[in-house]
Amino acid sequence: MPFKDQTTSASQTVLTEVVEARAPAPGSENGYLIVIYGHEMGRRVRVTTEPLIIGRSPKCEIQVDQESVSRNHCRIRFEGGEFLVRDLGSTNGTYVNDNLVQEEGRLRHGDQLKVGRTILKFIVGDDVEVEYHEEIYRLMTTDGLTQLNNKRYFDEMLDREVARAKRYKRSFSLLVFDIDLFKTVNDRFGHLAGDAILRQLGAVLLGRLRVNDVLARIGGEEFALITPEVGLDGAKELAGKINRLIGDTRFEFDGTRVGVTVSVGVAEWQPHYEDPSDLFKAADEKMFEAKRNGRNQVCS
Questions:
Q1: Which residues contact 141 (CB under 8 A, 6 or more apart)?
Q2: pLDDT value at position 17?
Q3: What CA–CA distance (Å, rounded) separates 201 from 3?
């Protein structure tokens, strides 16, 4: 079954279908490629010592049915005790951990292989079954493209913070932000560029927040940040830092700089709110107000 030309959010049902490209050779190295972003997320393909080709052609061992994927896009083979990946002259390139594959490169345990808009994670070793099930669990709470939390996890954490706020009378705030004119990026540079920008934005923000903060991708180009025990003033200050950080970051795709800014809406939990949707609506409305006021700013 080919991978269709679409992406799938991590909040959707995770598939656990096992697709064996070939029977494993006795005593050989074996691993899996797991789809962590794209159609059929969670699908796995067994990788053995036999060469394996990924591409748009139905003759490929892994068919990825996308316009951005070449008919024979890349090949994985086993030699000298390690797995190697080679780009087969594809139009849009093959990437391992966001690095363009030049000629042939090693494919190690945990690496992410990007073919078109599909991202596959490579796992290999003695405990591939355990690793696979752990990865499926991770996919249920993580956005495969940005590696941030997904909307499912965000909704659970927002419910938790609302329950804590009601029980202990502690406040917290919510930031909702959206990439400005993101459709223009996709229209001008293509969806591969849009995916690259989203991944880079996630990387910029990861590790720059408190341990207790919950950052998630909740839509196409929309993100949200829960800040436990932070009032409106502190949340506004944080929103300003995020706005400036993203505006000052050099985002690139294929060597071309892409200007990226965000509009941020901020709201603090209020005692008269009935449920989490009230807080989200307040922050979301402020985000749209920031866009109406000219974008690239914070409204609270």
A1: 10, 149, 150, 152, 153
A2: 44
A3: 26
pLDDT tens digits, one per residue of 48-106 = 999 999 999 999 999 999 999 999 999 999 999 999 999 999 999 999 999 999 989 99
Q: Is 268 a catalytic residue?
A: no
Q: Name the pairing type of β-strands 262-268 and 298-299.
A: parallel
List 50, 221, 222, 237, catalytic entry: 221
Contacts of 36 (CB under 8 A, 6+ apart): 112, 119, 120, 121, 135, 139, 144
Cα angle at 8 between 19 and 31, to 5 degrees?
Answer: 30
Burial readout 257-279 (b: 16 or more C-beta within 10 A, e: otherwise):
ebebebbbbbbbbeeebeebeeb
Q: Average of pLDDT values for 162-178?
A: 95
Q: Are strands 94-96 and 112-115 parallel, antiparallel or unpaired?
A: antiparallel
What type of residue is 123? I
Instruction: List all residues 6 or more positions away from 227 whose beta carbon is below 8 Å from its beta carbon.
Output: 172, 173, 174, 175, 210, 213, 234, 235, 238
Mean predicted confidence (pLDDT) in 261-281: 97
